[in-house]
Amino acid sequence: MSRRFRQSILVIGFGLLAAVLVSSFAPVDARAQTPPSLAGCPLFPHDSVWNTSVETLPVHPDSSSYITNIGATKGLHPDFGSGTWDGGPIGIPFNVVPGSQAKVAISFDYADESDSGPYPIPPNPAIEGGNNSTGDRHILVLDKDNCVLYETWSTYPNPDGTWQAGSGAMFDLRSNTLRPAGWTSSDAAGLPILPGLVRHDEVASGEIRHAIRFTAPKTRKAYVWPARHYASSLTSLTYPPMGQRFRLKATFDVTGFSQEVQVILRAMKTYGIILADNGSAWFISGVPDERWNNDVLVSEFARIKGSDFEAIDESSLMIHPDSGQARQDNTGDAEVPTTPSNLMANAVSSSQINLSWEASTDNTGVEGYIVYRDGTQVATTGNTAYQSTGLTASTAYTYRVAAYDAAGNISQLSSEARATTMAPSDTQHPSVPTWLTAEVLSSSQISLAWKASTDNVGVAGYVVYRNDAQVATVTDRAYTDGGLSPSTSYSYQVTAYDAAGNVSAKSTAVTRTTQPSASTKFSVGDRVQTTGKASVRSKPAGSRLVVGAQPAGARGTVAGGPWYYSGHWLWLINYDTGFDGWTQEDKLKAAQ
Question: In terms of DSSP bridges, do strands 139-143 and 95-97 run parallel, antiparallel, or are they unpaired?
Answer without folding.
Answer: parallel
